[in-house]
Write a structure and sequence with these properties.
The chain contains eight helices and two strands. With 137 residues, it is mainly alpha-helical. The protein has one domain: Sufe protein. Chain: A (Alpha-Beta Complex), CATH 3.90.1010. Helix 1 runs antiparallel to helix 3, helix 2 packs across helix 3 and helix 3 packs parallel to helix 8. The two termini are 25 Å apart.
Length: 137
C-alpha cells in the first residue's frame, strides 16, 4: 500500500469519528510508531517549538530513501508526528522535498480539532523533516 493510500485510509476513518475517537486514533497511531531508542532522544534530535518534547531522528536507507524514528512524551503529539511520518516515511529526499505536507494534513483539520498547544509544533516538525530531506538531496 502506498503512503497516499495509507493516509487516505486514515483520513477516511478520522472523518467518520467523533472528537474523542479522533484522539484515540491519533494515540493509536503514536503507539504503532517504531520504537526510538532513548539514546537518540537528545538535544540534537529535539524539535524546537513544540509544547511537548518531540524527537525526530533521520536515517538513510541503502537506496537513499529516508527513514525517520520519532517519539514524544505526549500521546497525542506522538500521534501527530506518526501521522506526518505516514506521509514522508521511506521516501527519497527529492520526493519529500516536493510534498505539500500541510495540504495533505489539511483534511484532518488538526488546528480546529486539537488545542493550539497540541498543534503549535506541527510546522516545526514539518520544517525539520524538509530540512533533513534538503540536506540529503
Amino acid at each position: 500500500m502506498t503512503a497516499v493510500n495509507q493516509i487516505a485510509e486514515i483520513q477516511d476513518e478520522y472523518e467518520f469519528l467523533d472528537a474523542d475517537d479522533r484522539y484515540r486514533l491519533l494515540i493509536d497511531l503514536g503507539r504503532a510508531l517504531e520504537p526510538m531508542p532513548d539514546a537518540l532522544k537528545t538535544d540534537a534530535t529535539l524539535v524546537r517549538g513544540c509544547s511537548a518534547a518531540v524527537w525526530v531522528y533521520p536515517t538513510r536507507l541503502d537506496d537513499g530513501r529516508l527513514h525517520f524514528l520519532a517519539d514524544s512524551n505526549a500521546a497525542i503529539t506522538k500521534g501527530i508526528i506518526a501521522l506526518i511520518l505516514q506521509i514522508v516515511q521511506d521516501r527519497s529526499p527529492a520526493d519529500i522535498g516536493g510534498l505539500a505536507i500541510e495540504d495533505i494534513l489539511e483534511p484532518f483539520d488538526l488546528r480546529n480539532q486539537l488545542s493550539s498547544n497540541r498543534t503549535q509544533g506541527i510546522p516545526n516538525m514539518i520544517a525539520l523533516i524538509r530540512e533533513t530531506a534538503k540536506r540529503y538531496a
